[in-house]
Every structure is written in structure tokens, then in C-alpha cells.
Design a protein that fits this description.
Length: 358
């Protein structure tokens, strides 16, 4: 199959905190916990509706084909000052000195770390491959318990301080959301069912890769947690998700227990969250972790390269299932590395989570 041009981009509204977590939190007896969650759900619902309405008229802001492809990022940070009008007031542009606002500086660094991994290791200039400027807004809303990519820019809330802390504290959260843009400009995976879970999983994969790359960690040294440091001290948990052990990230009286499955034996059939895109993503997440740790070394060099090749190769359909994606990872491993350790690691990883590759 020849690579298909991705002219039918479908930008979607993607948040780091799943709706089921906020739903659970909104039912808490303590108004300090419930009210910020309800406001966040309302804000997310409004943004999601706005994204659907404007998607038909959306035009990707890419560089002209005659322009040189930038090797360095162009980042612009804005401050929403606890309002919800985007992008907000400009507070830092590319090359500016650090500000007095730690949230601005963390977002600036996280956007840069994501750009750096893509261009240095995969030869891709920004998420669109043409040096797309990276825009981020901090201090969105009042005690807003989320971060999102809306198809055009990154947005970070401050959290309520009770359950969630500032959403710029975890570089993998920044990279996760920006990776939704990478998917948008490449495979454009539909945000529903298994293709939606793959969409979420790809973002978790690249979130972890950016964190490990920026920290200089090997696959064995990485914690494979998404959002470590994001949960407030009162929460019984370590992160939003665990790629190594899905279902173990938190077990809290207020948030409940992490519902992610780690294999197809426990696949969750649900009408919530676009068919469980944040829940069932645990299955391909665990497959990636198994492969990356089996290969050892730096996860972005071989395991990440295989995932990147599938995402950008042009053969992954928008409605791809887990087994479609798994089959293509085997093909990508063969094409890039030949019949060796990489192919064996891919086959074993998908077998372990119960996803067929043939």
C-alpha cells in the first residue's frame, strides 16, 4: 500500500485526565474536591463541543512548502490568568529569558523537550514535520483539573491543590498532549474505541520517551508512569497511569481504583469516554513497555523508532484496531532492523497482552 496523504485531518479535544476520574471526583462529599471537578467537566464539555463545531472549518497552520524546515522550535507561552479565553496574554516567546512564573518556564521546557526528541532522533521538525510553532497557555480556568490539546495549542490548568497539582509539573504530560498533535498530523487515528485507545497509547508512549530522553534514562531506569508528581500528597497513588503495570497507578478512597487492563482478557466494553479510550490504552501501553525493556538500552532508539515508523508510515488506517497496529509494528521492525531481536521482542510483547499479530 502506498502512503496516503493525510488531507482529512480531524483535530479532536484530548485531555490528560480521563472523564471517568473527574466523574468519580465530582461525586465526592467534600465540596473542595467535587466543585473543581464539576467545573472542569463543564469546561471540558464546552471545549469538546467547540472543537467539533470548528473542526470542519479548521485549517492546519503549517509552513509553506518552499520554506526551510526549522531545526529549532518556535515556542510561545500565554497566561490565561484563570480565565478561559484562549490563548491569553503573551508572556514568553522563543529565545526569551525565563520568567518569574514556574508554570510558564516548565511548559516552555516541556514543549522544547518534545521538539528536541522528534527532530534529533526521528528527523521530524515539530509535530507536523514542517516546524509548526508550538503554543501553550498556562493558568487556564479556576482550579482547572486538566491539561489538553485542542488541535491547535496546549492548555494547562493549575489543579485544585487537593487532588491534582499544576499540570506543567510532569514533562510527560506536556509531551503526551503534544503527541496528540503528532498523531493528528500523521495517522489521524479516530478518537473512538480501539483506534481511540491507540491514539491515547501513542501519546503515553511518546510522553514516556520524552521524559526518559530528557532525563537520560534507559528503558530499565524509566518509571513508565504517566503524570508522576501530578497527584497531591493526600491521594493514594503515584500517577495517572502505569505503562509497566496498568491498573496500579492509584487506589484511592476518592478517585477509586485505576481501571486500566493490561491484556485483552480484561478488555473493557463501555460506552463512556468514547468507548474507553483512556482505559483500554493500558493494553498497547504494556505491550510497548514489554518490548522496550526486553530490548534494553534507550527506548527511543529501537522501540520508539518502530512505533514512530508505524505512526508516520502511511499504512495505519484511521479506524485501526489493536491487531492492525500490532501487525504493522512487526512489519516496521522487519523493515528497519531485519529478522532479529527487535522482531522477536515485538512478537512476544503483543502475545503477552493477548493481541494477535497475524
Amino acid at each position: 500500500m502506498q502512503p496516503r496523504p493525510n488531507n482529512g485531518l480531524q483535530p479532536v479535544f484530548c485531555t490528560i485526565v480521563p472523564p471517568h476520574v473527574l466523574d468519580k471526583l465530582s461525586q465526592a462529599d467534600d465540596p473542595l474536591l467535587a466543585e473543581p471537578a464539576r467545573r472542569t467537566l463543564d469546561a471540558d464539555s464546552a471545549r469538546r463541543h467547540h472543537r467539533r463545531v470548528t473542526a470542519l472549518a479548521w485549517t492546519p497552520q503549517t509552513a509553506r512548502t518552499s520554506d526551510p524546515v526549522p531545526a529549532k522550535p518556535h515556542r510561545t507561552l500565554y497566561d490565561c490568568r484563570h480565565g478561559t479565553d484562549l490563548p491569553g496574554v503573551k508572556v514568553r516567546d522563543e529565545g526569551d529569558e525565563a520568567t518569574q512564573d514556574a508554570s510558564v518556564n516548565r511548559a516552555y521546557a516541556g514543549l522544547g523537550a518534545t521538539f528536541d526528541l522528534l527532530v534529533t532522533e526521528y528527523g521530524r521538525s515539530s509535530i507536523d514535520g514542517k516546524g509548526l510553532p508550538l503554543i501553550g497557555s498556562v493558568h487556564y480556568g479556576e482550579k482547572y483539573n486538566n491539561a489538553f490539546f485542542d488541535g491547535e495549542q496546549m492548555v494547562f490548568g493549575d489543579g485544585d491543590g487537593e487532588i491534582f497539582l499544576d499540570f506543567t509539573v510532569a514533562v510527560d504530560v506536556i509531551a503526551h498532549e503534544l503527541a496528540h498533535g503528532l498523531t493528528q498530523y500523521t495517522a489521524n487515528l479516530a478518537y473512538q474505541g480501539q483506534s481511540g485507545a491507540l491514539n491515547e497509547s501513542v501519546s503515553d508512549v511518546f510522553g514516556s520517551l520524552v521524559k526518559q530522553y530528557s532525563l537520560g534514562q534507559s528503558a530499565d531506569q524509566g518509571d513508565w508512569l504517566i503524570g508522576a508528581g501530578l497527584l497531591a500528597p493526600r491521594v493514594s497513588g503515584v500517577a495517572l497511569r502505569s505503562m509497566k503495570a496498568p491498573g496500579t497507578a492509584y487506589d484511592d478512597d476518592v478517585l477509586g481504583k485505576d481501571p486500566q487492563p493490561g491484556s485483552m482478557d480484561d478488555y473493557v466494553e463501555t460506552d463512556q469516554d468514547n468507548g474507553g479510550v483512556h482505559i483500554n490504552s493500558g493494553i498497547p501501553n504494556r505491550a510497548f513497555h514489554l518490548m522496550a525493556t526486553a530490548l534494553g538500552g534507550n527506548a527511543w532508539e529501537r522501540a520508539g523508532r518502530i512505533w514512530f515508523d508505524v505512526l508516520t508510515g502511511g499504512e495505519l488506517t484511521q479506524e485501526a484496531s489493536f491487531k492492525d497496529f500490532a501487525r504493522l509494528t512487526v512489519v516496521a521492525a522487519q523493515h528497519r532492523f531485519g529478522e532479529g531481536d527487535e522482531v522477536e521482542a515485538v512478537l512476544k510483547a503483543w502475545s503477552e497482552v493477548g493481541v494477535p499479530t497475524r
